[in-house]
Amino acid sequence: VMKTPETIRALYLESGGTPPVCKLGDIPGSVLADGDVLIRVECSSLNYKDAMMLKGLGYNLKEFPFIPGIDVAGVVEDSDHADFKAGDKVVLNGYGTGESTSGGFASHVRTRGDCLVAVPDGMTTQDTMTIGTAGLTAMLSVMFMEHEGVSPKSGDILVTGAAGGVGSVSITILSALGYRVEASTGRMEEADYLKSLGAASVISRSELENGPERPLMVRRWAGCIDSVGGGTFSTVLSSLHKRGVIASCGLAASNQSEISLLPFLLRGTRVVGIDGGYGPIEERKEAWARIASTLTSDQFAAMRTVVPLSDVLGLADEIIGGRVRGRTVIMVDQ
Question: Which pLDDT value is given to residue 197?
Answer without folding.
Answer: 96
